[in-house]
Amino acid sequence: MGEIGEEEEWGSLMRAAQDGDSASYARLLSEITPVIRAAVRRRWSAQAVEVEDIVQEVLTSVHTSRQTYDPKLPFLPWLRAIVHYRTADAGRRHIRRSAMERSECTFEYGLPEVPVEAPPEPVGNPRALRRAIDDLPSGQRRAIELLKLQELSLKEAARETGMSVAALKVAVHRGMKALRLKLTDQK
Amino acid sequence: MTMDTEQFIGSLVADLKPVRRLPPSPLRCLLWLAVASPVVAVVVAVMGPRPDLMAKLGESRFLLQELAALATAIAAGNAALALGVPGTARWKLVLPFFPMLLWIGSLGHQCWMEIVHLGPGGIEFEPDAICIPGIAAISAVPAIAILAMMRRGARFHPRLTTLFGALAAAALGDAGLRLFHDRDAALMVLVWQIGSVALFSAALGLLGVRLVPDPRTGRPSETT
Q1: Which residues of chain A have pLDDT under 70?
Q2: What does the pLDDT read at residue B222?
Q3: Could you read off the pLDDT of B43-59 as tens digits, one per residue?
Q4: B215 touches chain A (CB under 8 A)
Q5: Of B9, B46, B161, B198, which is least packed with CB atoms within 10 Å of its CB?
């Protein structure tokens, strides 16, 4: 199928998804993911993990903004704009992070007062897990605490935090991934 | 596709609910105007229209400034709502500047003519206590209405969206204010009324990231 035929098809699938058709939505997201990934790679020369994070952010934005798509208009400009915004967001975050890392490594005023890290503790140590949870960004930490530690339902956690169920799912997914990475590194 | 992203798509699909499609921005802008204009009209009625209103509406300059303020409100309202649709055409964002330039340009020209005819000493200029609270009060409901409508759109540009929304509300408010507030000296209008519109727009624009938080996280958005 050519790009135009594909675009029309994606427009129809999104229209069906707006009406709540899960099968069309699953097909649409699966088909556009390689397109998103290629577009992110073109704009963002980073490690595969970071690219995949941005792809997931784009997918989240497609999900939370799906009511804004007008089926009478072409689908690709709408999708490309979302990819553009999310990649730009990631770029800004990257620059901020780099600036913070640089400032920590500048020895202009002598060595930084960084406490010596304790030796890594084995996986399964509740203190290591607690520390790893404490290190998560606040949204992910809150999602993990409510959904995994306090075992609240998604609806209860959504009521508690004011976040949407989708945002909570994304936050807990990211949080678990970050915890896995952190605890595996310590092993 | 990595396993992670596949699982992630699964969680998004599981979360799918039917959504109401967002109507085109001009239609939503008309809806906003239909909500906001009666509120402004009620404020004008409560405050009491200026005694010379009919005569003023016959003056081409007054009429031009009122229509330019109204056109600024409509174009800025449309821009604010269009910004909530990814991939929106950029000309929609430039459009509000034309009536705004006409509005400010007409007041600037009037101000210059007053200086030429009356001399710098003859220009009326004094504090006008009603402008800032007046415009804030008339614009409050239109601003709340447009903010509520903006929150249904995508929130990639919270500051710019809120800035346009606030400009729309404040321009509509100023068009209303001039129907009951009979201070017509151009310098007074330029400084106090246009100044209040700018202040109101800038203040809400700065609060934009808090007023239209990112729906992904519920936290303030990071973009412009």
Answers
A1: 1-4, 45-49, 99-125, 186-187
A2: 46
A3: 999 988 999 889 989 99
A4: yes
A5: B46
Question: Over pLDDT 90: what percentage of chain B?
Answer: 40
Task: Note the pLDDT tens digit of each residue in B129-138.
Answer: 777 787 888 8
Check residue A20 and give left, alpha or beta (phi > 0: left; psi -120 to 50: alpha). left
Interface residue B3 vs chain A (CB under 8 A): no
* B18 touching chain A per CB within 8 A: yes
Q: How far apart are CA B136 and CA B127, in angstroms?
A: 17
CB contact under 8 A, A82 and B154: yes
Confidence of residue B39 (pLDDT cuts 50, 70, 90): very high
Give the C-alpha distances (Å, rounded to integers) separating B117 from B8, B64, B111.
71, 21, 10
- pLDDT, residue B1, reads 46
Question: Where would I find the H helices in chain B?
Answer: 3-14, 25-47, 53-57, 60-82, 91-94, 97-118, 131-150, 158-180, 186-188, 195-206, 208-211
* Shortest CA gap B77–chain A (Å): 17
Q: Kindly determine whether residue A169 and residue B15, on different chains, have CB atoms separated by under 8 Å.
A: yes
Beta carbon pairs, A and B, within 8 Å: 119
Q: Is the pLDDT of residue B77 over 90?
A: yes
Long-range contacts of A24-32 (CB under 8 A, 24+ apart): A25/B12, A25/B13, A25/B16, A26/B9, A26/B10, A26/B13, A29/A59, A29/A62, A29/B9, A29/B12, A29/B13, A30/B1, A30/B9, A31/A6, A32/A62, A32/A79
Query: How many angstroms away from the CA of B220 is the closest CA of chain A?
Result: 12
pLDDT at B221 over 70: no
Q: At what angle do helices A22-43 and A3-18 cross, to 10 degrees?
A: 130
Q: B22 touching A, CB under 8 A? A: yes
Q: What is the largest CA-CA distance in chain B?
A: 78
B87 → closest Cβ in A33, A81, A162: A81
Q: Which carries the bigger pLDDT value, residue B215 or residue B95?
A: B95
pTM reported for the whole predicted model: 0.72
Q: Is the pLDDT of residue B220 over 50?
A: no
Establish if B31 touches chain A: CB-CB under 8 angstroms.
Answer: no
**Residues 6+ positions from B55 with CB-CB distance below 8 Å:** none
On chain B, the residues whose CB falls within 8 A of the CB of A163 are: 217-218
Q: Distance from A2 to chain B by nearest Cα, in Å?
A: 22
